[in-house]
Design goal:
Blueprint lengths: L1 H15 L4 H26 L4 E3 L9 E6 L11 E7 L8 E10 L4 E4 L4 E4 L2 E5 L16 E3 L4 E5 L8 H4 L2 E2 L5 E5 L2
Antiparallel strand pairs: 1-2, 2-11, 3-4, 3-11, 4-9, 5-6, 5-8, 6-7, 9-10
C-alpha cells in the first residue's frame, strides 16, 4: 500500500511540474524494462542448461527440454532420455552425450531376429545394419526375451542411428535426464 501512495505522490509532482508526456512515457518504459530484466534474469540463467540441441539426424526433433532424472524414476516406451556413452566414431576418447527414445522398457518383450530386425511387444522398431557407411562390420546386439528391470532399449529414428541395436541396454542409473521434444 505504501508503494502505491508513493507512486501517486510522485505522479502528482510530475504533473504539477508539467513534465511532458513523452518524458513520463520514457520513464514508464524504463521502469518496465528494469522490472522485466529483474524478473527475466533467473529464467535466462536457469534455462540454458535445460536445453539440448541434437546435431545429428538421429531423432526427428532437434531441440529438447531436459529435466534431471529423479532417483527411482521409471521410463517407458516413447520417453526420451539423455545419457553418456563412449562412441567409437565420435573422435573423442571420453564419453559423449546421447539423446534417444526409449523403444522398449522393463517388462516389454524385445526380439532381435537373425536379420537384425528389432521388435518390441511385436511392434517393429527398425533394422540393425551389418555395416557402417564406410563398410566396416558392426557388432549387433542380440536378445530375445523380456527386458529386465532397470534396463532400457533406446533407439533413434534414423536408420543409421547409433543406439541399442549396437551397444545393447542402457541402465536406468546411467540416464542423466528425461528429455521433452520442443521442435
Amino acid at each position: 500500500m505504501q508503494r502505491w501512495r508513493r507512486f501517486v505522490r510522485v505522479s502528482r509532482v510530475l504533473l504539477q511540474a508539467k513534465i511532458s508526456r513523452s518524458s513520463v512515457k520514457s520513464r514508464r518504459r524504463f521502469c518496465q524494462a528494469v522490472v522485466l530484466g529483474i524478473l527475466g534474469l533467473p529464467v535466462v540463467l536457469w534455462l540454458p542448461p535445460h536445453l539440448c540441441v541434437t546435431t545429428t539426424d538421429s531423432l526427428r526433433s532437434r531441440v529438447f527440454f531436459l529435466l534431471d532424472r529423479d532417483p527411482g524414476e521409471t521410463f517407458e516406451r516413447g520417453n526420451y532420455v539423455r545419457f553418456e556413452r563412449v562412441h567409437p566414431w565420435s573422435g573423442s576418447s571420453g564419453p559423449v552425450s546421447l539423446l534417444k527414445e526409449v523403444g522398449c522398457g522393463p517388462g516389454n518383450r524385445l526380439r532381435v531376429d537373425a536379420v537384425g530386425d528389432v521388435y518390441c511387444d511385436g511392434d517393429y522398431l527398425g533394422r540393425a545394419l551389418s555395416e557402417d557407411s564406410n563398410g566396416n562390420r558392426l557388432t549387433l546386439f542380440r536378445f530375445d526375451g523380456v527386458i529386465p528391470e532397470g534396463k532400457l532399449f533406446v533407439v533413434g529414428h534414423h536408420p543409421r542411428s547409433w543406439d541399442s541395436r549396437y551397444f545393447g541396454f542402457v541402465d536406468v542409473e546411467e540416464v542423466l535426464n528425461r528429455a521433452y521434444p520442443l521442435f
